[in-house]
Amino acid sequence: MYTMENNFKMVAKTLFGFEELLAKELTQLGAQDVKIGIRNVSFTGDKGFMYKANLALRTAIKILKPIETFKVKDEKDLYDKIYKMSWDKYLKPSGTLAVDATINSTVFTHSLYIAQKTKDAVVDKFRDTTGERPNVDLKFPDLKINVHIDREICHISLDSSGDSLHKRGYKTATNIAPINEVLAAGLVMLSGWDGQSDFMDPMCGSGTILAEAAMIACNIPPNLMRKEFAFERWSDWDVELFEKIEGSLLSKTRDFHYKIMGYDKSPSAVTKAIDNVKNAHLDEFITIKHEDFFKTQKAGDNKLHMVFNPPYGERLDIDMEEFYKDIGDTLKQSYPGTDAWFITSNLDALKHVGLRPSRKIHLVNAKLEARLVKYVMYEGSKKAKFNDY
């Protein structure tokens, strides 16, 4: 019904603080005209690259294909301009659609209302021109439309991903506050993990950081297990091209010769993490044990790379000062030769770790200000003292 240009502009959305990581991923995949924005990176590529980006990007939440940009004065103006667009290029009258909207504007203040207005304009256009109207399907629409209004500029895009790309497909079991897969992958990448040492998550919850670390180490595309991408319902869906791209990505996986270990003191978390790792077909690389990190010691003399997401005060009834002091004490006394990274939104509690971080990276986690901090634990007790206040 419609053909895409050879190369076209796309926008990959991401989390705050991951823009440079995503730009680097895109460049390495072969994207052109890569430009960093706030929580997004724009680039150009062809249809095959759009498939590849959805399959292979670890820090992208969505891949959008912009189709129209215009100025908008008010709701009527928005409706009229969307109505004028050639929607029959993208959707059949008997098809289904869904709209999501994000707004940063003083004129438009309600994103659900903007989504509704957009849907009305598209549906009315079909009804007026064909006598038939598409229906709304929020779960599996044939076309997902993204509306982004920034002050008076409106961008209309096709959402090629569908569900957020953090929904990798391997997680069936989660805990109270599971870490988002895109956030987990980004933390591991920011920590500089390259698969060339042992890796540990000592508070592993449902195993997300472990799974993402294993996929990074083995260069496994993160979204192989997804049930569906939105572009599979587009009229120019090319299954042969998709399978070729998938095969090419799979041919680039690599061997991993170290250990990935997870601990958690909750037996139910350990069970869930083991299930999720099995679902991801990563159990040959990852070992998960029921352990209290504060009672453990580093095994062997090999260098250890540690990334974790300690519980925040909001979700567990614990003494945060004591808890963070225990983190610092355990690292100092029991984990020599370790680069330890963790993320926290409890910025006051960081003061109680009792170690000086060698790096602090500003991030946002679930709308909370957060820091990813790094502590270097040297071999031998003398060197460890240099990390002390």
From TrEMBL:
Any one GO molecular-function label of the UniProt entry: RNA binding
SMART domains found in the cross-reference section: THUMP
Boundaries of every THUMP domain copy: 49-160
InterPro entries in UniProt: RlmKL-like_Mtase (IPR000241), RlmL_1st (IPR054170), SAM-dependent_MTases_sf (IPR029063), THUMP_dom (IPR004114)
UniProt keywords, alphabetically: Methyltransferase, RNA-binding, Transferase
Superkingdom, taxonomy of origin: Bacteria
Designated name of the protein: RNA methyltransferase
